[in-house]
Design goal:
globular, mainly alpha, 0% strand, 71% helix
Length: 191
Amino acid sequence: WLTYTQGDLERSREYFQKLPQASAMLTHEGLAWIYRETADEQASRKNLEEGFPVGEQLIRGAPKAAQARRVFANLLAVSGAQMDRAEQEARKAVELEPNNDSHGTLGFVLLSQGRHREAVESLERALKEGHGGTPLPYYFLGKAYRGLGDEGKALHAWQQGLENDPHHRLILSELKGRPPKPVPKKEKASM
């Protein structure tokens, strides 16, 4: 994911295509992000046609596996296909494993549906429960706040995300025209 967020789409595509079969859903999810961004409609359609059956098979084989449902929900939401199904899978993941990852996925799905207020609630819960170690939930939270018309909270969320990765290009693209505030360096505690 690091090569993707830093803008190396070609290297990211190569990486996701080489993931072992056991990681097939993650492969399709990663490729979906790349194809969406590069507007490669033909590759995107092929990836989705291959990815949906893999997701269905994983869920049938492990119906109580929240991670499989989260990844499948992400794939559906990134593709913009079957948004009702994406929400259903994300909500089932929350039900099975009401932790930060599941709420973050639900927040992303709700954001993808334009349901900004509900997305904020899910993403805030994800961050409250400890999913603040990566910039992505902050990126989505900022998008949700912007969708609600609250630019101040959007900027605050993105600044928090940059504390985790000052080079996160998705956040930086939202801040275009506004230089990001310097991120204070975290001092190590002296012994």
